[in-house]
Design the sequence.
């Protein structure tokens, strides 16, 4: 029997069970406004613990909600779709009153969301939009298109084609660049790549940037599950296939620090960063501590900082609004069409971090300490 079918049967059975017990075990079936916070539970489903940002996100959401007196059921799915489906099912049976979900695959949770909707449990998509379902009530994230434009701009600035103030740089190229994207099943990967390509296209068109491999389509440059090893392998393959004629890579568009570190390892193994072979300008995202150290050491060019403390706060505010019988306040009601409806969203701004920005942006705001940056490791 196929897994899909089993999941469908499982969810149908669960829905029947929920209906039979009149919502018991599935929150209070909608109206929670007369309940005390200590009687209410928020299920928080996070994708993976392999990237430190999701650990920070999970902890921050939990801590913010617990500090308001709510109970939190936090689960990590190890980047495995069936595990995440099962965890969300369990959160519902265990009595979640609101769900906060950062999906691994934005389209894989439809049956769980239907069960949640039947039990009147509001669903907040956390950072990654859940697609193809009407049962997503709210979305908290960053300006994801802007992440992409900021990454591409950092590449242009690093190469000297543009100045930080947006004016034309003194360099003219042509520069050899390669492009990477995230996981195709993550809606954000498309926003990042579109933002980046809209920014890079004029430079590719006027040949100041050359993608020597010729791989410029998201399907060609995507990285399943955002895996560092996959990016390292692809960079190694690119070096062998497209740079064995003595040509050098000048820049790499990378959408996430974990991928950037894989790409940098591949480049270092091929002699980049050593005598006579300058490390290419490599971009990133998330201000992961290992990459912040690499930026500080002049190895990685930049990252995009998304303050997960603020995102966690917005998720907590939205969850609490639902629990109090109110609608959370959106600041964007047109950008995030999930294929079935436009999901009201609260979007936060993003910030590019070059070496000079580490102190004012990351250290002075308490995101990382100077010691952590020096060590390239978070303190436990
Ligand atoms: C997030 C990024 C993150 C990536 C990989 C995306 O959905 O928006 O911040 O780098 O997933 O975890």
Sequence:
């Amino acid at each position: 029997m196929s897994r899909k079918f089993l999941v469908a049967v499982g969810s149908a059975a669960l829905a029947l069970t929920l209906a039979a017990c009149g919502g018991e075990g599935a929150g209070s079936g909608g109206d929670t406004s007369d309940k005390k916070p200590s009687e209410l539970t928020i299920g928080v489903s996070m994708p993976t613990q392999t990237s430190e940002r999701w650990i920070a996100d999970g902890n921050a959401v939990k801590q913010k909600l617990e500090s308001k007196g709510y109970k939190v059921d936090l689960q990590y799915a190890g980047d495995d779709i069936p595990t995440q489906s099962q965890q969300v099912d369990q959160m519902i049976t265990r009595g979640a009153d609101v769900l906060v979900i950062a999906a691994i695959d934005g389209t894989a949770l439809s049956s769980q969301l239907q069960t949640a909707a039947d039990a009147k449990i509001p669903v907040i998509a956390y950072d990654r939009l859940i697609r193809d379902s009407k049962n997503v009530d709210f979305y908290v994230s960053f300006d994801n298109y802007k992440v992409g434009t900021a990454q591409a701009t950092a590449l242009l600035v690093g190469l000297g084609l543009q100045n930080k103030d947006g004016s034309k740089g003194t360099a003219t190229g042509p520069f050899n660049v390669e492009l990477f994207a995230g996981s195709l099943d993550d809606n954000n990967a498309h926003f990042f790549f579109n933002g980046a390509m809209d920014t890079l296209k004029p430079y590719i068109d006027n040949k100041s940037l050359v993608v020597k491999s010729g791989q410029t389509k998201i399907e060609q440059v995507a990285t399943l599950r955002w895996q560092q090893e996959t990016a390292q392998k692809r960079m190694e393959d690119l070096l062998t296939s497209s740079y064995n004629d003595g040509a050098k890579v000048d820049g790499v568009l990378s959408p996430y620090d974990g991928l950037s570190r894989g790409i940098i390892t591949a480049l270092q193994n091929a002699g980049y960063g050593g005598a006579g072979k300058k490390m290419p300008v490599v971009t990133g995202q998330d201000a992961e501590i290992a990459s912040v150290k690499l930026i500080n050491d002049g190895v990685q060019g930049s990252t995009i900082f998304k303050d997960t403390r603020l995102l966690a706060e917005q998720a907590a505010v939205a969850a609490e609004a639902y629990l109090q019988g109110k609608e959370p306040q959106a600041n964007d009601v047109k950008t995030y069409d999930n294929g079935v409806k436009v999901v009201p969203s609260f979007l936060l701004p993003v910030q590019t971090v070059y070496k000079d920005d580490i102190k004012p942006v990351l250290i002075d705001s308490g995101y990382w300490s100077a010691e952590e940056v020096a060590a390239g490791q978070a303190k436990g």
